[in-house]
Design brief:
- The protein is an alpha+beta fold.
- It has eleven helices and ten strands.
- The chain is elongated, with a radius of gyration of 41 Å.
- The strands form two sheets. Strands 2-1-5-4-3 form a five-stranded antiparallel β-sheet, sandwiched between helices. The protein has a five-stranded antiparallel β-sheet with strand order 7-6-10-9-8.
């Protein structure tokens, strides 16, 4: 028994940088964790592991979640360090009790928890700021299985999350700009026949208001001769198949048809009632193709006519020669 007490009394925590110096300066007889000699072996071991690591780590111990941490975590605390050392976790972070309290309760009931990019609003610099963290909470049991504390290894991901969010916002603005300015028709529609979201090109191309286009079945603006094609495409979309490069004409407000080449894909997962579609006006392309075909036809006609004229000229020359012979007098030599 005396050797065990001597071993307990000689507990030391070498190294650990500033956090190690802070730990060694604490008057543990006045702390809620008690004297070092009374610390459970699990707490001693985890504290040494934590102080030797460069990754941000902390320990929340006991019913009050008394906070111990290393140098990596002290940077996350900002001006709250070193005041936060050996204080209850939610005295240090009262602003996150609603988000973190339940998670810690689950850990103290024996459940390990890991989360990525959890967004929290912290008041660590005198004002609320949004920060993001990836972390794992590990329950720490004693020899009987009772959970005495939790051990956390964490990383602040605020910079990366902010950058990704900014990039996503820039991409969204660019997408919206293309959506607004494009001459192509972008739309979201239901499989039972209604448009639910369209870009302004629909109104510009068809001389109809957005409100009108969203209020009526889209079959009413499709050329009657193309309704069968449309029904076939919708059936394929309902079966989860994407359909590309099909031609369906839409009717302007004055009844004039415009030819579009379309692509359509069903909602991801194939279980929804929506599909996404984009249409490109190919009226000019069709006119050019018709002009090319007409030109090729006229060229062929010209070649045929030229060939016939040549052959006919040869026949005329032969006939002319025959007439010359017939018209000659017998005395002509």
């Amino acid at each position: 028994m005396n050797s065990q007490n001597s071993s307990k009394a000689s507990i030391t925590f070498p190294g650990g940088g500033n956090a190690g110096d802070l730990l060694r300066s604490v008057d543990w007889t006045q702390s809620k964790l008690g004297e070092l000699s009374a610390w459970p072996q699990a707490l001693v071991t985890l504290t040494r592991v934590m102080l030797s690591s460069s990754q941000p780590m902390f320990i929340a111990w006991g019913p009050e979640r008394i906070l111990l941490y290393n140098d990596g975590y002290s940077k996350m605390l900002g001006p709250k360090h070193p005041w936060a050392f050996v204080r209850p976790f939610f005295e240090v972070w009262p602003e996150v009790r609603s988000e973190i309290g339940g998670l810690m309760d689950r850990v103290f009931s024996g459940e390990p928890i890991a989360m990525d990019d959890l967004a929290l609003t912290l008041n660590r610099n005198g004002y609320p700021e949004e920060a993001s963290f990836s972390f794992s909470y590990t329950p720490v049991p004693d020899n009987t299985g009772e959970i005495l504390g939790l051990f956390c290894a964490c990383t602040e991901t605020t910079g990366r999350v902010t950058t990704e969010r900014r990039q996503a916002e820039d991409a969204r603005r660019e997408r919206d700009r293309l959506f607004e300015m494009s001459r192509d028709l972008f739309g979201v529609a239901t499989l039972d026949g209604y448009l639910v979201s369209i870009n302004p090109a629909w109104a510009r191309q068809l001389d109809r208001s957005v409100e009108e286009l969203l209020a009526r079945p889209f079959s009413e603006i499709i050329h009657p001769d193309d309704l069968a094609e449309t029904e076939e495409v919708v059936a394929r979309l309902s079966a989860g198949e994407s359909v590309h490069q099909f031609h369906v004409r839409l009717l302007k407000a004055d009844g004039m048809p415009i030819s579009f080449a379309w692509s359509a894909v069903p909602e991801a997962g194939g279980e929804g009632n929506l599909f996404y579609t984009v249409g490109r006006d190919i009226t000019d392309d069709l006119r050019r193709e018709e002009g090319i075909r007409h030109g090729q036809k006229m060229e062929a006609v010209g070649q045929l006519t030229g060939g016939l004229a040549h052959d006919f000229n040869n026949l005329l020359q032969a006939a002319h020669g025959c007439l010359d012979l017939i018209l000659r007098a017998p005395q002509d030599s």
